[in-house]
Amino acid sequence: xxxxxxARYPAPAPRPPMRPLPPPVAPSHSGTRGVGRDxxxxxxxxxxxxxxxxxxxxxxxxxxxxxxxxxLFVLGLIGxxxxxxxxxxxxxxxxxxFTSWFVLVLIALPFVVETATRGKSLGHxxxxxxxxxxxxxxxxxxxxxxxxLVGVVELYLLFGIPALITAAVSSKGKRLGDLIAGTxxxxxxxxxxxxxxxxxxxxxxxxxxxxxxxxxxxxxxxxIRGFLDRYASFTPQAQAVTGQQLMARALGYVSPAxxxxxxxxxxxxxxxxxxxxxxxxxIARNQKLQEALFSxxx
Length: 298
Fold this sequence. Notes:
This protein is mainly alpha-helical.
């Protein structure tokens, strides 16, 4: 009795070699692709870029809020003193009215404003800032109340010194009230970067569109930009030497390598133009996500 001969399967085709990954980059430099350590991710796995406001904007916004708060408080005291001149009140009642005015102006008013505007104080409205929770969402009434309550101590009674100290050591510029409430302040108004006149070389457009571009160090990006801007003013020798050096450094952050027939000028121009296009798209996408996030609860 003959046994069936097992069929021979064709040998698997050799797998194409994998493209090398770009060199590792610190999370603080993640700006073009990927999700860094401090990025927020939406339900669609898209990095939501909500940059925290710098200390300068935070200080200026806080100064505006404190000035308005003190002005309202002093005006109320002046009116209260004139009232006491006309009407004789019991000392306990006068102290109660004074305490009520203090709580109303320095605690209740900031709480109501931030709750009603979804994270915007008067200083935030003037400078284009917004307070969000640590998940990049809208703050709650509880968080707004905690910020207002702690703000009386750190901003009004201690003249903002604790706020400056905690903002200086915090990665997101949080003041003491933000640390307790679980919030931080972002730049709510963010425009796309100005147009840069770096034309994409037609011969490299297809390569640049499919290439993996890792974030570059700031000094390298600025060097490439300066080289492209002042290329015509360089001598032919400087154009060749500087272009080769910059391209050699830039290719460490690009995969796969460009066609061997491309010149350093074309490669650097293609990298710069593609990075700008991706950054502009990323900022526009994140701006839409941010607007949708803040308008959903209105």
